[in-house]
Description:
Elements: H1 2-38, E1 45-52, E2 57-60, E3 70-73, E4 80-81, E5 86-90, H2 93-119, H3 121-149, H4 154-209, E6 211-213, E7 218-223, E8 237-240, E9 246-252, E10 264-269, E11 275-291, E12 301-311, E13 324-329
Helix pairs in contact: 2-3, 2-4, 3-4
Amino acid sequence: MARTTRFLRVALGASAVVVIVALALWIGPDRQRSKAQDARPPGPLISRGYTEAPASTVVVAGDPAGGAVVLELRVTDGQKVKRDDIIAVLSNYPTADVEVRAAEAQLLKAQQQRKAMVSGYRTAEIAMQEVVVKAESDTNKLKQLQFQRSSMPPDEKQHELNISQQNVEREQAKLKLQKETLAADLAQIETEISILTAKLDSAKNTREQALVRAPIDGVIAELYSRQGERIHGNGIAKIVDLDQVRILAEIDDIHVSRIMVGGKVEVTFRGSPIVHKGTISRVSPMVKRLKRSQADLGEGNVNLVEVEIKLDDPANMPRVLSRETRVIYL
């Protein structure tokens, strides 16, 4: 009996130890993480950053359909460009330019034909025919007056009047036909002009697409395609407005509660001892999860939050991308 009681005590003790160890393993990481989050290292928060222009960087594709070749490249690395400056000419430009010139010639011909119809011999013919109709009408009226006083037999008078009336109606019908024909021809030429105008606009649009223009004022930061090459998958060039350069820095998300938009910072650029005052303009709402290298920071992940900073005096911002900085959060 005593042996049985002793065995039960040993078993219960072992079970209690197992339960305690399991609770420690379950609670331990959370407590450690909580302590790591609550821990506030002494001194200011410091991080590294770099210069970038996230809101004023444009990659120029140049060829939405793909497959075009750069016939002429008109820029070089580091060159300043203005909005709508031509950066490159694509290989389909010569063909598109010929199509534009052909469409312009066809449209001009149709416009000249319309002008000839409106103010040329066709209009003169109608004017002359109107004179003939008026003359025949006047002659018919005159005969009617004359026959009222004439002693000619009534049947002869009526015969003469019928002939005169037929002449008037014949000339009126001729005038009507001329006007209707001209109206129909004008309607046809107007339709043709509309079609040719649309064709010319389409040809000009195709030609314009073969001219790659700068969408913003800036500097050619990088060229992806060269003259004579098929357009690279990244496009033709990257243009950056260096007047919109900002500082992007990253901090561990453990310290995100220590910063806020409008917060003040001190910035120094690599290779310069000058300290610049700045302000936090944006704190990213997204955390980037990066795998730590075992050689650098040990096992596990690091969670970073991106912070965007503007210098209080923008004139002091270097017009250079990817320049390394040191940021102290005040």
